[in-house]
Amino acid sequence: MVMGLKGFLHRSGSVLKPIARALCGAGLMFIAVAAAAAEHTWHMDLRWNFLKLGQVTFVASTTDDEERFEIIGRTAGPLRWVKNYDGRGLLERKGEREIYTLQGTDGGVNEIRRIVFEHGELPRVLEFKDSAAERYLEPAEPWGSQAWSPMALVDRVLKSAEYPKLCAGQFTVFDGKRRYEVLLSATTTPEASSSVDANMQRLAQCTAILLGASLYEVGQSLPNAVQDGDRRLALEMGSSKKMRQVWLFGRGDRRIDFTFMSECGDGLLSEMKFHSALGVIVGGVSAPCSS
Fold first, then answer.
1. What is the percent of the chain where pLDDT is above 90?
2. Which site among 103, 160, 176, 252 is 20 to 30 Å from 182 CA-CA?
3. Is 96 within 8 Å of 122 (Cβ atoms)?
4. Whole-model pTM?
5. Helix/strand/coil for 63
């Protein structure tokens, strides 16, 4: 029984570490209250098959001329015994200029990415240190000047709760290490979710699909060898690198559902579902109406 739990935790860790990095790096959990309070802080738990694997704290703040979105994430519970990962992401926006920063510790190795995005110009990489890549992907035309920072795209998703037309279109995303295409589409009458309190009225859902065929990483010379059908092999090998490819940045498409609720008067994000080859990872806000 003990060995079985240990094996499960190691497999879960192989899955959660890339997810945690994706949450900060890809910005997929950078949650902002849609133009509401000047500062808003709340928490979300990550669960896989009802086991708590991680937790994150979100802070969104605005001033007269600047917006800031921040997330601090870490593994939690028994999983932290075998996979100790901490990450911090930050988006600073002033006018048409954005600074995207990712900082984290992966296996004792410090990582950082700091990129400036300005409308109509190629992104400028100010700092880059990654545990698996020696250099960053050089931004280039024609895609570079149209690229979005990961968190800017999520900001668009979150604002779609109030303006549904924002949840539509195809976008190029650049995170320093890779570029890829994301397709947004809205659902106004999603199916009921058993994980959401029946008293909380479902407002809308925005679905983001990362198009796996569009993924290009720095130093990539051959197509990504890990396919969805290789999941079993990746599990048997216990490779965290392969698990990253299988889950979010593989050749197959990856889907994330953002669900909004109207109980608190405005459309606030209450749940996220990450659809992976290993099952659904659910992120739920612990207190949707807290501030």
1. 28
2. 103
3. no
4. 0.75
5. coil
How does pLDDT run across 219-256, given as a tens digit for each residue?
Answer: 766 454 334 333 433 443 344 443 343 345 556 788 99
CA separation, residue 263 to residues 92, 104, 109, 266, 268 (Å): 29, 34, 42, 7, 9
Q: Quickly tell me which residue has 């500062």 as its tokens.
A: 39
Q: CA 86, 87, 90 angle in degrees (round to 5)?
A: 160
Stretch among 26-40, 47-61, 111-125, 242-256 having the lowest mean pLDDT: 26-40
In whole numbers, what is the pLDDT of the chain averaged over residues?
75
Supply 105's token pair.
Answer: 């510790």
For residues 234 and 228, the answer to whether their CB atoms sit within 8 Å is no
CA dist 252 and 244 (Å) reads 12
| Gyration radius of the chain over CA positions | 18
Dihedrals phi, psi of 165, to nearest 5 degrees: -65, -20
60 within 8 A of 122, measured Cβ to Cβ: no
How far apart are alpha carbons 202 and 188 in whole angstroms?
A: 9
Contact indicator for 261, 203 with CB cutoff of 8 Å: yes
In angstroms, rounded to a whole number, what is the distance separating the alpha carbons of residues 247 and 19? 8
Structure-block tokens of residue 131:
């545990």
Distance CA 268, CA 200 (A): 11
Range with lowest mean pLDDT among 26-40, 91-105, 266-280: 26-40
* Bridge partners of residue 258, in order along the sequence: 206, 272
Alpha-carbon separation of residue 139 from 13, 124, 290 (angstroms): 32, 8, 40
Q: Coil, helix or strand for 155?
A: helix
Under 8 Å CB-to-CB from 95, ≥6 apart: which residues? Answer: 65
